[in-house]
Specification:
The longest helix is centred in the last third of the chain and has 25 residues. Helices cover 40% and strands 28% of the residues. The radius of gyration is 18 Å and the shape is globular. A 6-stranded antiparallel sheet has the order 1-2-3-4-5-6, with helices on both faces. The protein starts with a helix and ends with a helix. It has one domain. By secondary structure, it is α+β, with helices and mostly antiparallel strands. The protein contains 4 helices and 6 strands; from the N terminus they run αααββββββα. This is DUF4468 domain-containing protein.
């Protein structure tokens, strides 16, 4: 019985350790093409390779335009799909939060937020802590505000 309990405890500990070590980089590699039709799996892998090599992470997307990965961390990433669409992903408590922000040549923008498991299964909006909810809201707003700054700097 003691051996069984020790084995169970070890298995639980190893399972928790492996679940905690997953990064958004790993999850992004496994993302189905259907969730981001702009980019193929090769495009996504190229983004990661380019950033790891210290290069500008820019690829030709499926619509013939250019997409650029701006940032990649263990729990977040940012991609400018085109001048009007920016996608951010956050990894929070084994939930992938995907924020798509659509902007136009005005001060208005709109964000859509999608939630997935790390295996890319869609889920309903989970309950997050107040700090996590605020982080998601900041990403939504910063994308709209950054677009405004870019437009003002061009004028």
């Amino acid at each position: 019985m003691k051996k069984f309990m020790m084995a169970l405890l070890l298995a639980t500990t190893l399972n928790q350790a492996s679940a905690q070590s997953i990064t958004l980089r790993d999850v992004f590699r496994q993302m189905p093409d259907s969730l981001m039709p702009y980019l193929s799996k090769n495009n996504r892998l190229d983004f990661i390779d380019f950033l790891d090599s210290g290069m500008k992470a820019e690829v030709k997307n499926q619509l013939g335009g250019t997409s650029q990965m701006i940032a990649l961390g263990d729990d977040s990433l940012t991609i400018r799909m085109n001048p009007s669409l920016r996608t951010d992903m956050l990894l929070m408590d084994s939930t992938v939060v995907m924020i798509e922000t659509f902007t136009v040549d005005s001060i208005y923008g709109q964000s859509r937020v999608h939630y997935f498991t790390t295996a890319w299964q869609p889920i309903a909006a989970p309950q997050f802590t107040e700090a996590q909810s605020q982080r998601i809201k900041r990403f939504e707003m910063q994308n709209i505000l950054k677009r405004d700054d870019e437009l003002l700097n061009k004028r």
